[in-house]
Amino acid sequence: MEENVRVVDRVFDIIEQLAASHSAMSLSEIAKETGMSKSTVHRLLSSMCARHYVEKNADNTYSIGYKLMETVSLHINNLELLTEAKPFLSDLMRDLHLTAHMGILDGCDVVYLEKMDIYPNTRLYTQVGFRSPAYCSSMGKCLLSCLSGDDLEEALYGCDFKRYTPNTITDIREFKRYLRVVRRQGWAMDNEEYQLGHRCVGAPVYDYRGTPVAAISASGSITQLSDRNLEAVIQEVKSAAASLSRRMGYVG
Q1: Where in the chain is the domain with CATH 3.30.450.40?
Q2: 203 touches 219 (CB < 8 A)
Q3: d(CA 23, CA 17)
């Protein structure tokens, strides 16, 4: 265990040294500045280069790789997304008297990043950090509908399509047909597919690159989200998602 911790410390030492340097560094320079042997630095750099957290340049020097920048950017973008999303989620909750969520896709699951509940003292099954199967989630369907080809196949590979209620879509071909509908209409619905008596309407959020980065939703009981007010909920959720997308720099 101690050895594993030491290796992690050394990896961070290399990353911090490369990040602080004004130019790319040679193996000898990294070894000198970190106090490690060249063989240790070379071994660690090889692993880091394989994961693209460090890049080896044509002149055999090393610099920070795109993967580290990409990972940090994702975190920063999520922080920005959360900040920008809160007013829109608050408006959805207040105007519709429903619970508002924001989530992201992680494999074949949706991870809930934010929740605003009209009944804050009532603990429902969804909480921040909660994961639910994307195929029976309105937000999950929205985000899966934005994928195509190999990306969609990869995301669905781990889905077991378990039947949670009589309404759950368990046939992958039927589900893919539904995703095409979601893509066209710009919203999706969980119609008592994960929990009986519960409905949810979601819409995707895009960033400045046109990449779907999250989805937002409004949910409640079938009494709160009935056929009578369904169209109004759909339009408000779509409008909130479009406004949030514009705040994230999306032009479309």
Answers
A1: 73-247
A2: no
A3: 11
Domain 2-64 has CATH 3.30.420.40: no
As a whole number of angstroms, the distance between CA 172 and CA 157 comes to 10
Instruction: Check: pTM over 0.85? Answer yes or no.
Output: no
| Strand-strand pairing, 131-133 and 25-26 | unpaired
Distance CA 54, CA 250 (A): 31
List where CATH 1.10.10.10 sits in the chain. 2-64
Query: CA geometry: angle at 74 spanning 20 and 244, to 5°?
Result: 135
Contacts of residue 43, Cβ cutoff 8 Å, sequence gap at least 6: none
CATH superfamily of 73-247: GAF domain (3.30.450.40)
Q: Summarize pLDDT for 86-131 with one digit per residue, the tens.
A: 999 999 999 999 999 999 998 889 999 889 987 655 444 556 678 8
Beta carbons of 127 and 112 less than 8 angstroms apart:
yes
- Give me the residues paired with residue 112 across strands: 103
Neighbours of 64 (CB within 10 A): 17
| Contact status, residue 159 vs residue 134, Cβ threshold 8 Å | yes
User: What pLDDT digit, counting tens, does each position of 144-187 carry?
Assistant: 999 988 999 998 887 889 999 999 999 999 999 999 999 999 99
- DSSP state string for 46-95: HHHHHTTSEEE-TTSEEEE-HHHHHHHHHHHHHHHHHHHHHHHHHHHHHH
Note the pLDDT tens digit of each residue in 175-226.
Answer: 999 999 999 999 999 999 999 999 999 999 998 889 999 999 999 999 999 9
Phi, psi dihedrals of residue 41, rounded to the nearest 5°: -60, -45
Helix or strand holding residue 168 (H, E): none
